[in-house]
Amino acid sequence: MTFNDFQLNDLIKQSLQTQGYETPTPIQEQAIPVVLKGNDIMAAAKTGTGKTAAFSLPIIDRLIDGKPAHSKHIRALVLTPTRELAAQVNSSINLYARHTKLRTYVVFGGVKINPQITQLNKGVDILVATPGRLLDLYQQGAVKFDHLDVLVLDEADRMLDMGFIHDIKRIIKALPKKRQTLMFSATFSKDIQKLAKGLMQNPEVISLNPDNSSVKSVKQWLIPVDKKKKSELLFNVIVDEKIDKAIVFMRTKHSANRLTRYLQERGLRAAAIHGNKSQTARTKALHQFKEGGVDILIATDIAARGIDIDQLPYVINFDLPNVAEDYVHRVGRTGRAGALGKAISLVSADEIKQLIDIEKFTKQKINRDYFPGFEPTHELPSSDWKAKKHPPKKNTGKKTSHNHKRPSFNKSSDKPNRRPRKK
Questions:
Q1: Rounded CA gap, 417 and 381, in Å?
Q2: Do 266 and 302 share a structural domain?
Q3: CATH code at position 21
Q4: What is the C-alpha to C-alpha distance for residues 219 and 402, in angstroms, rounded to an integer?
Q5: What average pLDDT does the structure give for the chain?
Q6: Do both 238 and 371 map to the same domain?
Q7: Do 256 and 174 sit in the same domain of this protein?
Q8: Which of 6, 20, 78, 395 is most buried, with most CB under 10 Å away?
Q9: How far, in Å, CA of 96 to CA of 194, rounded?
Q10: What is the mean pLDDT of residues 304-327?
């Protein structure tokens, strides 16, 4: 199947040809015909599967021949959880609509609101927004929803995780009841289903990730280490693995800043991105990372969703996330578009609960590999969570083969083979 098989406007096909896009991804193949029919949709698919095009191409097709948006009015609204994702979605929509006369725009917090008010005053056909800033603009009378045809909730589960549920409900209350609603989410949690129930009309359901397993194209392993040794270990891992491009995920903003300085002092090109950084600083760091001016991006979970970075070979978890789902979203930054990715986690003994939660959620054990010279004083306990329901089988001596450079593990044991020390 190719994009030519869809009943899309020729101007859209021209944009796709310019970008070299020929074959739709599975989510695009399933979602685009449904959206073109005007039906509501609930779609579950992992980050990096082409969700933006899945909803934006048919929306552009729907709006091309209609009347342009009047002053302060919008015709289609895309809500996203973070500023970075909003900017990325808007950039993609601009590419797809480049040969049309549609006006697209993006609004989010962290920047001055007056230029946004000025732009909205001209009318916008497709508006991409974060919930908080959109509410501010609505309360100031800068945006009106009377002529809205389509609502998209992108990364809906992440918006709920970040506490936007009340903002979303207030926005929905202000929208016309007669509209098309499209919800895209990584998972169909109970909260997502509850939100959809009062939001959509007989939605068609598409699910491309029926379980919670991590991306299959990502090789994952963890390195047990004492907490105080993590920074030094990370530096050595980067050098040992010859890593020239990676995102390193951390729990807190302050530790992200400290680690960035630590790596910079040792000659690595590193930059931090988190909620305390200004939008200008965040945008600059992402741009430098994408363009090669920065090799190591130190990030809190604000960057775990929606940041589209081509050919990212490594994701490193300096800290395990408190929420197991976030591990999947972090790891999902690599191994995209058929490329092989690697995910390394530096895990200390006090993170055993998070490790068990992650392994239960993904239904898989994460291989362990000790790094020479960094064997922990406080050993990481076994994460033998299956033993609570099923007694461990006797050791048969058989080993499971893993197709990556790290050592293989015995099925009946959490204990890894240790790599020989380098002389």
A1: 16
A2: yes
A3: 3.40.50.300
A4: 9
A5: 85
A6: yes
A7: no
A8: 78
A9: 32
A10: 80
Q: Which of 337, 32, 300 is nearest to 184 (CA)?
A: 32
* Residue-wise pLDDT tens digits, 137-178: 999 999 999 999 999 999 888 888 788 889 999 999 999 999
DSSP string, 91-122: HHHHHHTTTS---EEEE-SSS-SHHHHHHHTT
Phi and psi based region of residue 72 (left: phi greater than 0; alpha: psi -120 to 50; beta: remaining): left
pLDDT in tens, 351-374: 999 999 999 888 888 999 999 999
Is the pLDDT at 387 greater than 50? The verdict is no
Same domain, 401 and 280: yes
* Cβ–Cβ < 8 Å for 45, 32: no
pLDDT at 195: 83
Domain coverage including residue 169: 3-207
The pLDDT tens digits for 214-258 are: 556 689 999 999 999 999 999 999 999 999 999 999 988 889 999
Kindly state the tokens that stand for 110: 């962290």
305 touches 329 (CB < 8 A) = yes
Is there a single domain that holds both residue 152 and residue 226?
Answer: no
**Residue 224 and residue 183 in one domain:** no
Q: Is residue 256 part of a domain?
A: yes
Residues in CB range of 291: below 8 A, 6 or more apart: none
* 422 domain residue, yes or no: no
Query: Is residue 234 assigned to a domain?
Result: yes
Strand order in the sheet with 41-44: 104-107, 124-129, 74-79, 150-153, 180-185, 41-44, 204-207
Q: Decide if 421 is inside a domain.
A: no
Look at residues 179, 207, 235 and tell me which one is the last residue of a structural domain: 207
How many domains, in total, are found in the chain? 2
Give the total residue count for the chain. Answer: 423
pTM (2 decimals)? 0.65
Check residue 229 and give its pLDDT. Answer: 96
CA-based torsion, 341, 42, 155, 64: positive or negative: positive
**Bridge pairing between strands 124-129 and 104-107:** parallel
